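Our preliminary data section would be incomplete without showing what the modeling component actually yields. Below, a chain of 174 amino acids is followed by its predicted structure, encoded as tokens that our downstream tools consume directly.
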Amino acid sequence: MFIKNDTIALRRAEPEDADLIFRWENDRDIWRVSGTHAPYSRFQIEQFLLSDNDLPSQKQLRLMIDLTENGQTIGCIDIYDYDPINSRAGLGILIDKTFRQQGYAKAALELCITYLFNDLLLHQVYCSVDETNTESQKLFLSQGFEVCGRRKDWIKTLEGFIDELEYQKIKSHC
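Predicted structure:
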């Protein structure tokens, strides 16, 4: 395991995760929050998993979220736009529908932020959340993120345009 606590373990995505990632990436219910506009092929996902999946070279890293008690994979965290010069990175998190509302996202996000701030020595992390995704808004606010911006009419939906909120957490130096 990469890093873990009593509930959650984070690890790099492996080729064995292809079926699960294929299912998540092709779930049209989450395309809006992931910025996806077309399905991924299994081949594309396998190629991604066989690539470096490495922050220094690819500027992104997908971490799988496993339950500590039984090793079941319940979600993933994407670290993206890694910028070592300016000491920041973006975050995105997905928890499988059957495991939501159980505190797993919060536990995984806490572990990831600790890794980014204490091991990679990042100064800040950020994310974008659409204005209708209140669960993600609550999650990031609970972890000390602050709203630092709003992109108006940023995301087109069947019902019209919606805003996207920008969140940021800066490491405290206490």
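DSSP finds six helices and eight strands in the chain. The two ends are 29 Å apart (CA to CA). Preliminary results of this kind motivate Aim 1 of the renewal.
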